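Q: What would this chain look like folded?
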Amino acid sequence: MSRCLTERSIDHVVLERGEVANSWKTERWDSLRLLTPNWLSRLPGYRYKGDDPDGYRTMPETVAFLEWYAQRISAPVHTQTTVTRVRRTETGYAIETDRGEWRTRTLVLASGACNVPSVPAVAQALPPGIAQLTPMQYRNPGQIDAGGVLIVGASATGVQLADEIQRSGREVTLAVGEHIRMPRRYRGRDILWWMDAAGVQDQGYQEVDDLNRARNVPSLQLAGYADYRDVDLNSLTALGVRLVGRLAGVRDGVAQFSGSLANVAALSDLKMNRLLGVIDGWAERNGVLGDAEPPQRFERTRIPASAPLSLDLKSGEIRSIIWATGFRPDYSWLDLPVLDRKGRIRHDGGVVDSPGVYLMGMQFLRRRKSALIDGAGDDARELSAHLAAYLDGGEMQFARQRSAVSDSLASLGF
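A: My prediction, written as structure tokens:
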């Protein structure tokens, strides 16, 4: 957004609570790599030109990339500036921080979707002596106590941690809820190459039947391993990971799991094959069959005949639990009447339900790829176009549409 505003000679500032790329520096585990290949880190004015387009950036490489981009575009970032309150004024908004107050007619909320780990209330019922971690706290297997590990959640984070921790010699049990299985490579290319080329990632928010559902779809079971290997339930069971169903509750120190594991896995396989069918159809229509490997389908997910429905957490078998159960944004500083009953910001494609307020970086904000690095640029171009139209004299029109934009913007976070 900063790059797009600069292109239009619109004054703005970017307020950041830590340093540029702060979350990547302080809230990620050591071995994590981006799930998207290097060539897919497209931003306004930037395309990858290195010698490893199909590789996946490590965390240090990701931090360096974002720092470099901020410097290249001369982003007016004010680091170590924590926003404590945003409130309405007669002319716009007051942004209170620990380093003074800013006044602005409009602002962009770019603080992200992953501020606070979503730890279920059942965590409070665990017996004493079991260590609990979130993915923000986890760094590597060495920090985990000896003994079994229960990982709750089987989307991208859960399966990656299960893979790493099982390989470290600890016994992992994975509690599996809704997830989407996906091959890392398909027909000789990265699965995201196909999704990008076929237009899947560019699907707009107004093109889906159930937008709320689309915005809450689990992350794909992918990992950015250098050997391009898949990480799914089959690969994990081959390593010795024990699968159980979704964690339903804890009673008297006994964890209880859903009996729907087989159905959940079958639904995941169905979704994967449906997407592969879309890709195959696009490849046939666009004449890329001779330039790609033949279509393929993968072995169905293997589920144990009698997955455990309970586990005695008092027995000492499980010494640690990792809650890979997702995240939620933190709007405790946002003193504006824009939140729905579930604490989510009301918006229409990033145009917030308050004049002059915009949103960036959320799942399926304007298109399916909005939460990826590659999606930020397209969203920013469109939202900054609203701003430019406002400056050209469309204030009353945009005000009536609750999408007014102004000549001053405070962007919170990166």
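Confidence is low (pLDDT under 50) at residues 400-414.
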